[in-house]
C-alpha cells in the first residue's frame, strides 16, 4: 500500500535492482534526517504522555530500520503483487516503519489509553492489532501489542522545527511490560514458524503463561488500588500474599513428519558445509518453500540439490563473472535448484528477472528444462 504523503516520482519502475539501488542511495543520503525525525517523535510523545492521564509508561524508545531489512520487507510484502500487476514502484513508498518507536506501559489496559492519545495528536495511516491477530489463530504465537502507523498532524507538521521531516511516517508499537518481555524472549526462540508441533505447543503454553501474568498483574493492580481506597476509610492490617507456583514442563522430542527448519539444515548443511545458515533466514526460507508446496518433504529438497546443483553452480559462476559486485548465496543456489526440480510448483521461487536470465542461459547452454 503506497503511503499517502509520498509523491510518486517518474523514476518509479519495475526494475527491482534499479529500485534497490535508488532506495539505498535515498536511505544513505537521508539517514541523519531519519535519526532527527526519530528523536523528534520520541520527544513529542514523551511530552504528550507526561501531560496525559494514561498511567505509568516505563519506556519510549526508537530506532531507524536497517536498510537491508527495509528491502527484505518490501520483497516479502509487496514486490510480487506489484510486479504481477505491472505497477511501477519505489521501495521507499512502501515502508511505513522505516522509523519505529516502542512505548512500554506497565499494564495491558493502558495500551488503549496511549493509542487514543496518539490518535488525538497524530495523523493515522494504519492500525494493526497484533494481540487480536495472534489470539484468533493457532498458527501464531507470541504477544505483540498494538502497532500504529502515524505521521505528524497538520498543526505539528507546520511547526518550523518539524518541517524538515514532517512528512516521514513512523510506526509505534505499544506494549505492556509483560508483552515487551515476551517479545524479547520470543525473538530469541529459534525457528518460530516451522518448528514441529510438539515444540509449538510448548511455546503456546509459555505465551499463555505470559498472557496470564499480564492479566494477573492488572487484577493485582486493581485489587491494590481498591485496598488503598478502602484504607482511606478503615485502615487495613491484612497483608496480600501472592503464592505462585511455576508449572513444570516435560521434555518432548523435536520430531515431526512435516518439512521444517531442522530438515532444511540437515540437507543444506550437507551441501554447503562452510556456510553459516542464520536462524531467522532459515525460518523465512522454509516458509517460502511451504507457501509454494505445503506438502514438501526433506527428500524432495535433497533430490533437487543432487539432480541440479552442478548445473546451478555452473550458472552461478557465469552470473558472478558478468556481475562481479553481485552475490549468489546458497539460498539463491537452492532456489534455482528447486525451480529446476519442479518449475510448475516453484515458478515463483525466483523473481521474474532472475527466472528470465536463468531460462535464457539454460536455453543457450543446456537443454531447456
Automatic annotation (TrEMBL):
Family annotation (SUPFAM superfamilies): Nucleotidyltransferase
Top-level taxonomic group: Bacteria
Pfam family, one: RelA_SpoT
Coiled coil, from the record: none
Database matches in InterPro entries: NT_sf (IPR043519), RelA_SpoT (IPR007685)
Biological process per Gene Ontology, one example term: guanosine tetraphosphate metabolic process
Domain RelA/SpoT span(s) in chain numbering: 62-197
Name listed for the protein in its UniProt record: RelA/SpoT
The organism of origin for this protein: Desulfuromonas acetoxidans (strain DSM 684 / 11070)
Organism classification: Bacteria, Pseudomonadati, Thermodesulfobacteriota, Desulfuromonadia, Desulfuromonadales
Amino acid at each position: 500500500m503506497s503511503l499517502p504523503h509520498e509523491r510518486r516520482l517518474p523514476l518509479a519502475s519495475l526494475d527491482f535492482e534499479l529500485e534497490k539501488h535508488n532506495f539505498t542511495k535515498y536511505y544513505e543520503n537521508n539517514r541523519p534526517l531519519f535519526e532527527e525525525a526519530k528523536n523528534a517523535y520520541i520527544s513529542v510523545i514523551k511530552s504528550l504522555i507526561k501531560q496525559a492521564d494514561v498511567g505509568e509508561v516505563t519506556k519510549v524508545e526508537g530506532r531507524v530500520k536497517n536498510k537491508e531489512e527495509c528491502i527484505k520487507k518490501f520483497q516479502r510484502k509487496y514486490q510480487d503483487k506489484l510486479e504481477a500487476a505491472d505497477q511501477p514502484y519505489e521501495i521507499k513508498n512502501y515502508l511505513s516503519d522505516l522509523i519505529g518507536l516502542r512505548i512500554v506501559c506497565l499494564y495491558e489496559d493502558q495500551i488503549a489509553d496511549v493509542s487514543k492519545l496518539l490518535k488525538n495528536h497524530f495523523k493515522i495511516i494504519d492500525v494493526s492489532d497484533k494481540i487480536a491477530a495472534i489470539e484468533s489463530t493457532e498458527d501464531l504465537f507470541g504477544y505483540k501489542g498494538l502497532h500504529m502507523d502515524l505521521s505528524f498532524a497538520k498543526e505539528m507538521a507546520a511547526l518550523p522545527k518539524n518541517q524538515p521531516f514532517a512528512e516521514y511516517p513512523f510506526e509505534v508499537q505499544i506494549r505492556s511490560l509483560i508483552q515487551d518481555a515476551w517479545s524479547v524472549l520470543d525473538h530469541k526462540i529459534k525457528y518460530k514458524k516451522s518448528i514441529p508441533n510438539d515444540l509449538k505447543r510448548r511455546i503456546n503454553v509459555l505465551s499463555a503463561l505470559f498472557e496470564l501474568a499480564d492479566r494477573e498483574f492488572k487484577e493485582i493492580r486493581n485489587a491494590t488500588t481498591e485496598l488503598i481506597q478502602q484504607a482511606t476509610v478503615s485502615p487495613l492490617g491484612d497483608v496480600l500474599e501472592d503464592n505462585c507456583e511455576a508449572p513444570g514442563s516435560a521434555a518432548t522430542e523435536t520430531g515431526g513428519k512435516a518439512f521444517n527448519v531442522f530438515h532444511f539444515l540437515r540437507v543444506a548443511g550437507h551441501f554447503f558445509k562452510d556456510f553459516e545458515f542464520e536462524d531467522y533466514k532459515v525460518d523465512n526460507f522454509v516458509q517460502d518453500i511451504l507457501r509454494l508446496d505445503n506438502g514438501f518433504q526433506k527428500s524432495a529438497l535433497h533430490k533437487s540439490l543432487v539432480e541440479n546443483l552442478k548445473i546451478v553452480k555452473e550458472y552461478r559462476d557465469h552470473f558472478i563473472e558478468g556481475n562481479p559486485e553481485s552475490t549468489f548465496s546458497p539460498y539463491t543456489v537452492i532456489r534455482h535448484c528447486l525451480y529446476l526440480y519442479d518449475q510448475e510448483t516453484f515458478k515463483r521461487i525466483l523473481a521474474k528477472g532472475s527466472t528470465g536470465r536463468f531460462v535464457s542461459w539454460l536455453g543457450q547452454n543446456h537443454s531447456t528444462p
